[in-house]
């Protein structure tokens, strides 16, 4: 039986290669792929070895002529940077690219590239090759200047607040660390009444000034000083100084409003309590719960100082408290009439003071509270005499609930904090340790303790700060708890349970607010937030402006 083979009349036949005689599909070159590759090399003229400059201090690569870019190992940014450094790729079509793994310490980077090119009468040839990059370590200008002499700064931001404590700067320190504002600093120096930040670029100093204006009420001024002048290319080099003054009113301070300011605000005051500080200050009248917000511009237009600070607190015991009927609430504050007595008066006299407070939600009979003794404080302010109506100041002004005794009992039982805060790497000035003629270390420790207590008590402040778990403190706390449990099991549980019940209302930082991995290292070497090319353009504009000013003179 004979079979019939179906042949596709439209099928493509095979031809012989003109070089090796092997059968192949027809192509314009008339040669098979192996013969074309042996005759033509499309990678000819493409650079196979290259050198790149890397700054190990700020982890950036040099993109000639003077632009520095940041890229992580085997990242898309680094691959793009390496491909742009290869000469001759503009003559071919790049199809695929990727890294070949190398040891991180080998100072070598290898890329695998796949390219296509038209050869021999329109035939398209695809080929893969490897390019090796040698990484040379070299400091960038900013890092070299910082390593040679840390005092060679271009911009200095002087932050000052003329108060008796440094709790404001402890809070600013945490905000700066949270937002990474310390990365570009050359150095940070602590002063008796503030901090000095040194930068290698004017734009970095301006960035910090803008950040401070969004966080606290400040007034900023700036100045510049000519350092050098090159007459050949007509360039100028300046040092810029930014003076930032923080309003000398802090949370829990009492102020006496000027008569004109009180009249403009609808007759509020005159004695007001500062309950919150941000870019604006919140002042609250504890007797009426009327609140006003004062921004930095309004305050510095007619500045006034605090009449009392937290160092003048007196401890009181709440004897009786009753909420005011029909009184409105202002946020977390509730008006209440309270009867208190000084802790120091117990066993001495029977003086009972009556006042109205805004802490009706927090205080109960038997609690202790901190406040101002206005009767003995003797507020002497010329603005008080301008009020024509008779002003009868209360004897006491309560500010907040006190947990000092309960904290003392917890420390006596060995219960301590299990978290820590990250701190800036700063250099202390020569006279920074002698503030107000007292032992500077004791005052700093007291301010830090008060700030930590504020973080535990105020959830709004705590939300703006990053707190980290401390494994060492957590282990010691667990050991102390085990010892207390062992001692209690031996028959000493009589008073322990009562102490635990009494200390339940002591505010603590919730464990969900803590972060892992406390890093105390200097993050300035991580990198600059802005490239130097933009910074130099800003400096060039300043030089040109200065030149125009001198020519005009």
Number of H- or I-type helical stretches = 15
| Total count of strands | 27
| Radius of gyration of CA atoms, rounded to a whole number | 36 Å
- pLDDT < 50 stretches: 1-9, 490-495, 518-541, 543-553
Strand numbers in spatial order across the main sheet: 5-4-3-8-7-6
Q: Which structural category do the helix and sheet elements fall into?
A: alpha+beta
Q: Give the helix level as a range of percent.
A: 25-40%
Strand content: 25-35%
Q: Determine the N-to-C terminus distance.
A: 114 Å
How would you sum up the global shape?
Answer: elongated
Largest sheet: 6 strands, mixed
Mean pLDDT: 81
How would you portray this structure in words?
With 553 residues, the protein is α+β, with helices and mostly antiparallel strands. It has a six-stranded mixed beta sheet, with helices on both faces. It has a six-stranded mixed beta sheet with strand order 12-13-9-11-10-25. A hairpin with a 3-residue loop joins strand 7 (108-119) and strand 8 (123-137). The longest helix has 21 residues, at 532-552. The chain is elongated, with a radius of gyration of 36 Å.
């Amino acid at each position: 039986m004979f079979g019939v083979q179906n042949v596709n009349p439209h099928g493509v036949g095979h031809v012989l290669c003109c070089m090796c005689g092997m059968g192949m599909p027809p192509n314009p070159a008339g040669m098979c792929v192996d013969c074309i590759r042996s005759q033509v090399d499309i990678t000819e003229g493409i650079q196979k070895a290259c050198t790149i400059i890397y700054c190990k201090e700020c982890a950036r690569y040099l993109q000639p002529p003077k632009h520095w870019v940041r890229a992580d190992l085997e990242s898309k940014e680094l691959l793009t940077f390496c491909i742009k450094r290869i000469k001759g790729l503009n003559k071919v079509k790049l199809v695929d690219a990727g890294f070949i793994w190398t040891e991180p310490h080998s100072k070598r980077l290898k890329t695998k590239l796949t390219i296509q090119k038209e050869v021999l009468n329109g035939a398209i040839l695809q080929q893969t090759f490897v390019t090796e990059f040698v990484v040379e370590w070299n400091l960038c200008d900013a890092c070299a200047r910082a390593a040679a002499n840390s005092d060679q700064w271009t911009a200095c931001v002087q932050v000052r607040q003329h108060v008796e404590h440094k709790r404001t700067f402890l809070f600013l320190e945490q905000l700066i660390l949270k937002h990474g504002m310390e990365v570009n600093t050359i150095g940070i120096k602590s002063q008796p009444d503030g901090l000095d930040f040194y930068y290698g670029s004017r734009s970095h100093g301006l960035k910090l000034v803008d950040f401070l204006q969004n966080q606290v009420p400040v007034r900023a001024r700036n100045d510049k000083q000519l350092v050098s002048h090159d007459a050949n290319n007509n360039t100028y080099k300046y040092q810029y100084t930014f003076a930032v003054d923080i309003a000398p009113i802090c949370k829990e301070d009492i102020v006496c409003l000027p008569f004109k300011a009180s009249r403009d605000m609808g007759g509020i005051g005159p004695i007001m309590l500062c309950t919150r500080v941000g870019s604006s200050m919140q002042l609250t009248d504890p007797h009426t719960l009327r609140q006003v917000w004062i921004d930095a511009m309004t305050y510095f237009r007619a500045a006034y100082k605090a009449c009392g600070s937290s160092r003048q607190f007196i401890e009181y015991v709440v004897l009786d408290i009753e909420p005011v009927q029909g009184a409105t609430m202002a946020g977390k504050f509730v008006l209440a009439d309270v009867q208190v007595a000084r802790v120091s008066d117990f066993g001495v006299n029977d003086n009972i003071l009556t006042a109205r407070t805004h802490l009706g939600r927090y205080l109960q009979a038997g609690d202790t509270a901190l406040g101002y003794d206005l009767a003995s404080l003797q507020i002497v302010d010329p603005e008080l005499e301008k009020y024509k109506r008779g002003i009868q100041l209360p004897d006491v002004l309560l500010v907040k609930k006190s947990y000092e005794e309960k904290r003392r009992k917890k420390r006596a039982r060995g219960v301590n904090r299990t978290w820590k805060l990250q701190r800036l790497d700063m250099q202390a000035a020569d006279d920074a340790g002698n503030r107000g003629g007292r032992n500077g270390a004791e005052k700093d420790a007291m301010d830090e303790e008060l700030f930590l207590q504020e973080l535990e008590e105020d959830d709004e402040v705590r939300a703006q700060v990053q707190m980290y778990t401390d494994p060492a403190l957590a282990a010691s706390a667990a050991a102390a708890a085990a010892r207390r449990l062992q001692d209690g099991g031996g028959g000493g549980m009589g008073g322990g349970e009562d102490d635990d019940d009494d200390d339940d209302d002591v505010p603590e930082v919730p464990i969900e607010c803590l972060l892992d991995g406390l890093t105390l290292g200097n993050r300035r070497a991580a990198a600059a937030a802005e490239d130097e090319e933009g910074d130099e353009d800003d400096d060039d504009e300043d030089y040109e402006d200065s030149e125009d000013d001198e020519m005009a003179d």
